[in-house]
Write a structure and sequence with these properties.
Number of strands: 9
Structural class: alpha+beta
Number of helices: 4
Shape: globular
Distance between the termini: 30 Å
Strand content: 35-45%
Strand order of the largest sheet: 1-2-3-9-8-5
Order of helices and strands: EEEHEEEEEHHEH
Largest sheet: 6 strands, antiparallel
Length: about 120
């Protein structure tokens, strides 16, 4: 069963074993508005926790997406290239941005679970 973790920057990572799927939360996509472009800028090699991995552009703003943990990007969601609005429709499902192999699963301990994340968002 996958476990989902969240960052203070509103990224999520769904983890199964040593692999994670990363995207932005529903809260993040609502704040951005209509998403018009997504580019995963780090497509190969290792990334460290907190590295810029993607850029999301919306009608309101551009926002960097940071890696929630360290690892290696293994796959980019090809559907987002032609249909970035998928993130608005299903941010935590079909709107995932990239998949990665984790290099330090202990870093997950520094992320929030869903209950803590919901409280964090409610406090904003």
């Amino acid at each position: 069963m996958n476990r989902v973790y969240f960052t203070e920057d509103h990224e999520w990572i769904s983890v199964a074993g040593d692999f994670g799927t990363v995207g932005i939360t529903d809260y993040a996509q609502e704040q951005l508005g209509d998403i018009v472009f997504i580019e995963v800028t780090k497509t190969e090699g290792a990334v460290a926790k907190g590295d810029d991995v993607a850029v999301v552009e919306s009608v309101k703003a551009a926002s960097d997406i940071y890696s929630p943990v360290s690892g290696t990007v293994t796959e980019i969601n090809p559907a987002l290239d032609g249909e970035p609005e998928i993130v608005n429709a299903d941010a935590m499902g079909a709107g995932w941005m990239y998949r990665m192999m984790l290099s330090d699963p202990d870093e997950l301990g520094g992320l929030m679970d869903e209950a803590v994340y919901r409280a964090y968002v409610d406090a904003q």
